[in-house]
Amino acid sequence: MGKGSWMLGIGLLLAGRLHAEPVAVTLDPTVSQGKWEGWGASLCWWAAVFGDRTDLADAMFTTREVRVEGEALPGLGLTIARYNAGACAWRKIGEQEMQKSKIILPYRQMQGFWLDDRSSDPASESWDWSVDAKQRNMLKLAKERGATHFELFSNSPMWWMTRNDNPSGGPKPSDDNLSPEHERNFAIYLAAVARKAKDDWGITFTTVSPFNEPVSDWWFADCKQEGCHVSPGQQARVLPMVREELDKRGLEDLPIAASEETYYDHAIRTWESFDEKTRDLIGQVNVHGYQEAKGDRAKLHQVAHLEGGKRLWNSEYGDGDPTGLNMAHNLHRDLKDLKPTSWSYWQPIDGGGWGLIPADMQRGRLRRPNPKWHVLAQYTRHIRPGATILTTGDESVIAALDEKERRVTVICLNDGETGREWRIDLSKLGARGQPIITGWQTEPMGKSRYQTTGKVSVEGGHFTMSLPKKSVQTVVIEGLER
Is pTM beyond 0.70 here? Predict the structure, then answer.
């Protein structure tokens, strides 16, 4: 072996040893980032297709083992259901009719309730409350299975409230498509849906979110889904109207969530554009996670939560990676820097890698679940509402403490190409003696799917988590001393 090869070999050996050294993480109950409110999902579009499937409701909204299409799945235990007030209707208003995008698929045309502008009375013939039956049914099934938070959100105003009668967007994606003359009607529509849900559906919405990715410049007339560009200036005009219309209907306690921007950086700019009066109308800041590895999560947490005093949710995330590893990495980034108190996936059932369960949405046929389902289950089943999220100091490690049950959950992500180890210090949590430890592991590129792991022992208040490459592992430690 030549000198160069010898030096390279020594370097690789040392690198391997250094890599094999466990990463030290200390869990401290005094260093935390708030109570966890829950995990969720949006119901459109999948519920508009599969909203009568009780097995899917069980799989989404319970933690039972559920058989879906013959395959046993660990229930996700979601507690947040996001209901979409649709924008599509096919009744003409004189010679005026809805304009349809050339490429939108039927299952993405969500039916709306206010059919024409002749009357704002929800009991009049201008309204049809029988539409969108499957999405409404899944909302009910979610509640029956223990969901606690229900968010009403809008992708677009009703088609006839837009400038060009098109609920997919305007002729130019950078132009606002909510007609100024219908801003009040849009507020009336959202408030009427919220009131109807409380009176007749048995659903009390806990937030209402008027805008979906409003400053993004991809909502145009031939878009693949419903959408509407709404500039910060127009948002600031509409928000007081939404508040007024909710209050008129006795919904003074229903907070407004805004502004559901696509990117963290969009959310920062929109928030900073609002004056104090506008900010006071907002009870919760929602943001979507589509900026993935980019964007200033920490600044959004700073301006919206620490300085603005608002609850912060990541209300929508999705990607096309069927393994779930990309999703998990972005979830860890969120918990470390954004520090939301809830996290929701966009479409649990969707085409290809976007779905936790892929499906032929047009034909209503499910396919075999992606590993992504089992990756998400590692988090949703074991970090439950009311737990305190602990600040671990390591992006790869998420921890949550249930004070009442004296239980701590630790989730480690290894999305690298070699094995990794973590040495977890529990001594500050009162972990002495031999607490009960249970573990689960998913290897999306391998065979394990939410598989129970071997025994882990605590010695001197520490334990070691060893993960193979491309894997997620959860351990739950019970029996902590008080």
Answer: yes
- Catalytic residue (one of 213, 226, 245, 260): 213
Taking the C-alpha atoms of residue 228 and residue 215, their distance in angstroms, rounded to an integer, is 9
Q: Tokens 């979610």 belong to which residue?
A: 142
Check residue 307 and report its DSSP letter: I
User: Helix 264-273 vs helix 232-248: angle between axes, to the nearest 10 degrees?
Assistant: 70
Q: Per-10-residue mean pLDDT for the chain, 482 residues long?
A: 38 41 94 96 97 98 96 98 98 96 97 97 98 98 98 98 98 96 98 98 98 97 97 98 98 98 98 98 98 98 98 98 98 98 98 97 97 98 98 97 92 97 91 76 97 81 93 92 66
Residue 316: active-site member: yes
How far is Cα 78 from Cα 425, in angstroms, rounded to an integer? 30
- Catalytic site residue from 151, 183, 316, 443: 316
Q: Is 95 a catalytic residue?
A: no
Tell me the domains of the chain and their CATH numbers: 21-32+392-478 (2.60.40.1180), 37-388 (3.20.20.80)
Q: How far apart are CA 342 and CA 36, in angstroms?
A: 6
277-309 exposure pattern, b = at least 16 Cβ within 10 A, e = fewer: ebbebbbbbbbbbbbeeebbbebbbebbbeebe
Element holding 141 (H helix, E strand):
helix 133-144
